[in-house]
Amino acid sequence: MQREDALIRTLAELVVDLAWFFESCDDSTLDSRDAVRQLEWIAYKLDALSAEDRLRLIALIRERAETEADPAFREFMEGFPEAAGLNEEDG
After folding, report:
1. Phi-psi region of 85 (alpha: psi -120 to 50; beta: other; left: phi over 0)
2. From what superkingdom does this record's organism come (predicted)?
3. Which value, to the nearest 10 degrees, does the dihedral of the CA atoms of residues 76, 81, 83, 89 take?
């Protein structure tokens, strides 16, 4: 694996992990309004990706979801591209 590929894969994993944290934490961990704000910020930043980069990110997320043992996290990853607006054509 090339160095850049490792960087991109790691950053993609971090984005999904953080989104999962914001999605799954309860109010005793983080105020739900703050969690929603952070999820919206992630979607906003991902919206700036080119169509090619969106497809690459979606592929990385799907690849990771295939090997995920936690069913709840796997389901989250499977729905993440649509929830984050990555599937929209106008990116």
Report:
1. left
2. Bacteria
3. -170
Rounded distance between C-alpha atoms, residue 23 and residue 19, angstroms: 6
Range of the domain at 67: 3-83
Determine, yes or no, domain membership for 91.
no
d(CA 61, CA 54): 11
Is 78 part of any domain? yes
Give the side-chain half-sphere CA count within 13 A for 32: 2
In a domain, 88, yes or no: no
- Express each pLDDT in 24-67 by its tens digit: 999 999 999 999 999 999 999 999 999 999 999 999 999 999 99
Tokens of 74: 């796997």
The count of other CB atoms within 10 Å of the CB of residue 57 is 21
pTM as predicted: 0.86
Kindly report the length of the chain: 91
